[in-house]
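Backbones bend. Our protein:
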Amino acid sequence: MARTLPSTSSEPALSLSKGQDLSANSRESGQKLCDVRAWLAAAQADVLFEATSLNVETGQPAIDHIRAALDHGAHAITANKGPIVHAYRELRDLAAARGKKFLFESTVMDGVPIFSFFDQLPTVHVKGFHGILNSTTNVILGEMEQGVTLDEALKKAQALGVAETDATHDIDGWDAAVKTAALITVLMDIPVRLADIEREGIRDLTPQALRNARRDGWPFKLVCRAQRVSGGVEAIIAPEKVLATSPMGKITGTSSYLHFETDIFPGLAITEENPGLYATAYGMLADFVRAVIRENVVEKTPA
C-alpha cells in the first residue's frame, strides 16, 4: 500500500541570511515526527512518497519523514534534494539494514534516470561533471537576452510553471548547488557541504550584457561544475559564457544537460529537452516500479 505524505510547502523555509533560534522548530518537528509515525502505522503503508518542499539549510522535515518510513518498514521515495545532501549515508544505510529502498530519481533532472543509470555501470568511477541543472534560470536568461528585466523574465518562468513564487533559491544558485551536492554525494561518493561549493547566481547579469553575449555567439548559462581532486572535490556554480554551438550553448527553455567524465568513458552526456510538469511525477513513479513491482517479480521468479 503506497501513501503520499501531505505537502508542507506552505511552511516557510529557514532563512539562509539570518541566524535563527531553532528550539521552537525542533519541538514542532518532534511533534510532527510522532504524527508521521502514527500516520504510517495507521495507514499500514508499504511505500512513502515524500514530497515536502526543500529546506536548503537542514533538509528537514523530509529527513525525519524518510527515517520514520524506513523505521516503519516502508520503502521511501522522495523528490526532495535536502535529505540527499544532509543525510544520504545515514538514510542509505538505514534502508539497507531494513531491507527497503530509499530512492530519489526525481531530485535531479526531473525523472531522467541519472542515479539509476550509474547502477548499470558497476565499478565505473565518476571523475567530474558539468552541466545546466536549473531550468528557471535558463528560462530567465533566455528572456533577458530579448531585453526584458530579470523581474519580467521571472514572471514568464512563473507563468510556465517552472519557477516558485519565491524564486530566490533559483536566482541565487542554491537549487543548482543542492543538485550538484546531491550528484557529488551519491555518484562520486564524496560527502560535501553546501558551504564548500562556490556559488554565484544570476542577479548581477544585465539584459544588455546578455544580449551582447548572445550576439557574439557566447551566451551566458548558469553552469554547475564538479571535479575530483586530491583529498576531495572542487565544485562551483556560476554564470559562464559558453559557445553557442556547444552542447551547453544549445540548451534553452526548460531543458537540462549533464556531461560526466569517468575513468572508463571519457564523456557521457545526457540532455533533457523541455520536459513537461509531469516529468518529476514520472520519476517518482519509476522509483515505485523499481522498489515494489520489480521486487515482487524477483521474489516470485522460480529459482
Notes: Residues 3-27 have pLDDT under 50 and may be disordered. The two ends are 27 Å apart (CA to CA). Residues 108 and 208 are 31 Å apart (CA to CA). Residues 279-300 form the longest helix (22 residues).
